[in-house]
Design brief:
This protein has 413 residues and is of the alpha/beta class. The chain has two domains: 266 residues, Type I PLP-dependent aspartate aminotransferase-like (Major domain) (Aspartate Aminotransferase, domain 2, 3-Layer(aba) Sandwich); 133 residues, Aspartate Aminotransferase, domain 1 (Alpha-Beta Complex). The protein contains twelve helices and twelve strands. It has a seven-stranded mixed β-sheet with strand order 1-7-6-5-4-2-3, with helices on both faces. The protein has a five-stranded mixed β-sheet with strand order 8-9-12-11-10, with helices on one face. Strand 2, helix 5 and strand 3 form a beta-alpha-beta unit. The N and C termini lie far apart (73 Å). The site of pyridoxal-5'-phosphate has 15 residues, from helix 4.
């Protein structure tokens, strides 16, 4: 290589590293996260590498790429990007990407827990933690559960080897103090994992708050377009990451290269999307609070929300999910059917607003009229108007069914 080329390489590496500096703002870091150093005539973001195997002469021990279930350059770039966002400036953090959020969650829980171990889960976490718990118990692991709110998992820690937190919790939007729980768990020799799906790495950085693992579904707000299933585990160290990677290889829970590339591409707009969605969520939550037929409006960014105090200490953005309760199942169904801009769909975090009556799945401990609303990037005024109109429609139908009793003033307040 010529000196000129060397100098050029050094300059472009320096430029990239400056751009990735942990001191830069989120909007600056996301557009370059995980990208290679600039090179003349190379694309800024290399395309997806579709390969089941790689040319592999001789001893594979130190080959970076061998077989498509073991590794892939498109995963490597995405894994670097997520590490830069989950743990800026931390050279020891390691990310492993998975086929889905559940593949990532089970990689930590199932690769770590051995018969006789004690694992502490949230009682109000993602609904697939219930069958995961049954699987762990079938393998002789003792599983204890406690609610997220009030740091109630603290009381279940004696003898535990792994503490699993989900904050904010889905769908209840309760928050626990990661630092406080991680310190207590570490004092007892337990490792700590946080499901960071709802917050995204721009909303919360669990490793900086003391956790050993930040685990998330990238299907939701991280990628934000409702077109990819993905999961990841970011570990504090290579020592913790090795068994997670080995689990991925053993069970084959690998993401497709195209999905990984789409996910990486979508990170460039993560700051724009999360900022807009968080602002929209506040506007929508405030509008819903003004309606008499809506109760229990929850969003960690509302200053008087029960979760706000802890959320404000450990979160940098409060996410796009708003939950609330309507009078009953029929009311909620009429409301959802009447919405024009908000699709009736599960999942959350997408650019298009969606909502669902969570009770339809049967897995969460929520009232029949409980609605989980994921606020997208539409104009806030349009969303607020749509929610008011759909509430009016549902209210009119409810009043017709009761012969118009209570009509005066029912729409106010
Ligand atoms: C959706 C979700 C998961 C599961 O992710 P998938 O990508 O659907 O497998 C896990 N945890 C939380 C909090 C979620 O919202």
């Amino acid at each position: 290589m010529t000196d000129a080329r060397n100098a050029q390489d050094a300059r472009s590496t320096q430029r990239t590293e400056v751009a990735r500096g942990a001191r830069d703002g989120d909007g600056t870091r996301v557009v370059r996260a995980g990208l290679p150093a600039e090179e003349p005539y190379a694309p800024p973001m290399p395309g997806p590498v579709l390969a089941a195997h790689y040319h592999l002469p001789g001893d594979p021990a130190h080959a970076p790429y061998t077989y498509g279930r073991d590794n892939n350059p498109t995963w490597t770039a995405l894994e670097r990007a997520i590490s830069e966002l989950e743990a800026p400036g931390d050279e020891t953090a390691r990310t492993t990407v998975f086929a889905s959020g559940m593949a990532a969650i089970s990689a930590v829980l199932l690769s770590r827990a051995k018969p006789g171990d004690v694992v502490v889960l949230p009682s109000d976490g993602y609904n697939l933690l219930v069958p995961t718990r049954e699987r762990l118990e079938g393998w002789g692991v003792e599983v204890r559960t406690a609610p997220t709110g009030g740091d109630a998992q603290l009381d279940a820690l004696d003898g535990a080897s792994l503490l699993w937190l989900e904050t904010p919790s889905n769908p209840g939007l309760d928050v626990c103090d990661i630092r406080r729980l991680a310190d207590a768990a570490h004092e007892r020799g337990a490792l700590v994992a946080v499901d960071n799906t709802l917050a995204t790495p721009l909303g919360q950085r669990p490793l900086e708050l003391g956790a050993d693992y930040s685990v998330a579904s990238g299907t939701k707000a991280l990628t934000g377009h409702g077109d990819v299933l993905l999961g990841y585990v970011t570990c504090r160290s290579e020592e913790l990451a090795a068994p997670v990677r080995s689990w991925r290889k053993t069970v084959g829970a690998i993401p497709g290269p195209l999905e990984s590339w789409l996910a990486h591409r979508s990170l460039a707009t993560l700051e724009l999307r999360t900022a807009r969605q968080a602002a929209n969520a506040i506007a929508v939550a405030e509008a819903l609070r003004g309606r008499g037929e809506v109760s229990d409006v929850r969003h960690p960014g509302l200053p008087d929300d029960p979760a706000h105090g802890t959320a404000a200490r450990q979160m940098r953005r409060f996410g796009c999910v708003v939950s609330f309760t309507l009078p009953d199942k029929e009311f909620a169904e009429r409301f959802l059917a009447a919405l024009r801009l908000v699709g009736d769909a599960t999942s959350f975090g997408g650019v298009r607003s969606t909502a669902e009556r969570r009770g339809r799945w049967g897995g969460d401990d929520v009232p029949e009229g409980f609605v989980r609303l994921s606020v997208g990037v539409e104009d806030a005024a349009d969303l607020v108007a749509d929610l008011h109109a759909a509430l009016d429609t549902a209210l009119d139908a409810a009043l017709d069914a009761t012969g118009g009793r209570d009509r005066p003033g029912a729409r106010n307040g």
